[in-house]
Amino acid sequence: MDEVLRYFRDAIERPESVPPWPKWWREESWRADRVFEPGDFELLRTGRLDAARMILRRAGWPAKPRITAIFGTPCLTEESLAALELPPDYREFLLAYNGGYVTPCWFRAPGEWAIAAFLSWGGTLDDFLPIADVCESFALSPRCETLRLKVRGAGSGGVWLGPSEVAGSFTELLSRLDYPEHARPWMEQIDNGDSAGFRLWVEGGGEFNRRDPASALTPLEYTAVARNYSTLGDSLWVRDDGLPRRKARYDIGKLLVERGAEPGRAFLRAIMHHNFEIARLLLPPTGTSTADLRESRHWLRAGNPELLAVVEQELKTRK
Question: Facing residues of 160 across strands?
Fold first, then answer.
């Protein structure tokens, strides 16, 4: 990572001292492939030095919450936002990330809400600017709303959900993001791939079949839906910490199955999120409802004949 970032800085500040971007990318892009997640790699491929500037701006951002670029998000430059009146902290966020996924993603407003994703810059500005899609839970059909940032008039800079101000600034919102009260510590352990910590929680009497009321998920179901930013579609993206994190989540799922965790809707969730290794832990899917098996069949027809055959066989036995 340091070598790549050093090139970015030199290419921007001392371009005469390093190879031009097209040559470097042709010969050295494999380095970026190894250290950046899919969204950032694509950002660099399409945005070149403008994308490098965005990534360098992140140096002062706190490690928590973790923000991950969305694949296909376009670059933003200072020139593109120069004429717009935006709160300084939100402007800096756009210039560094231009939207993204965030972990942890929960805030209280009242009630507990999850940020599905921060939105990229849409090109239009009004008194209130939509900045994120938020949902009340991770249920399959949750109630969702839009977080808005007040950018003009009294109280500008505040973040609003419906008629209520939930944070005085974008920075304050980020600082308040956390995990649901009843999903601690297991949800963070699953996100971070902390299989050792999760095992200690289970062995200490953790209620692994208890459904978290905010996310509407059990630990096994959350393992099935946990985002993995080292993947693009069904393919693993080569990244230093991605493989260990994914393996640890598999180990967590295996532990839960071995301890007799109720499957709930974990099989369907794993299929929908392309976490097929978690789905295989739940075979045969005898604990999955017929309705979920039928929906799983719909998702599997897109390209997993192995699991599709298992689902078809299970459905036949239930006729």
Answer: 148, 165
CA distance 149 to 169: 8
CB distance 107 to 89 below 8 Å: no
- Amino acid (1-letter code) at residue 236: L
Measured between alpha carbons, how far is 226 from 191 in angstroms, rounded to an integer? 7
How many residues would you count in the chain?
A: 319
DSSP 187: H
Residue 89, pLDDT > 60, answer: yes
Kindly list the distances between the CA atom of residue 263 and the CA atoms of 55, 213, 291, in Å, as whole numbers in the listed order.
40, 17, 14
Q: Tell me if residue 98 falls in helix, strand or coil.
A: coil
The H or E element containing residue 255 is helix 242-258
Q: Which amino acid is at 56?
A: L
pLDDT at 194 over 70: yes
Instruction: Tell me the CA distances in angstroms from 281 to 233, 275, 290, 318, one per residue in order.
Output: 20, 11, 18, 21
The structure tokens listed for 92 are 């800096």
**Whole-angstrom distance, CA of residue 177 vs CA of residue 84:** 27
**Cβ burial 95-127 (10 Å sphere, 16+ → b, else e):** bbbbbbbbbbbbbebeebbbbbbbbbbeeeeee
Distances (CA, A) of 318 to 264, 291, 292: 18, 12, 13
Give the type of residue at 309. Answer: A
Inter-axis angle of helices 242-258 and 195-203, nearest 10: 20
Query: What pLDDT, on the 0 to 100 scale, is given for residue 138?
Result: 84
Asked if residue 126 has pLDDT above 90, the reply is no
pLDDT at 197: 97
Query: For residues 84 and 6, which has the higher predicted lDDT (pLDDT)?
Result: 6
pTM of the model: 0.87
Question: For residue 26, what are its two tokens?
Answer: 């042709």
Please state, as a whole number, how many other Cβ atoms lie within 10 Å of the Cβ of residue 136.
17
- Residues in contact with 60: Cβ distance below 8 Å, sequence separation at least 6, in sequence order: none
> Measuring CA to CA, how many Å separate 125 from each of 85, 152, 205, 249?
9, 10, 51, 41
> Whole-angstrom distance between the N-terminal and C-terminal Cα of the chain?
55
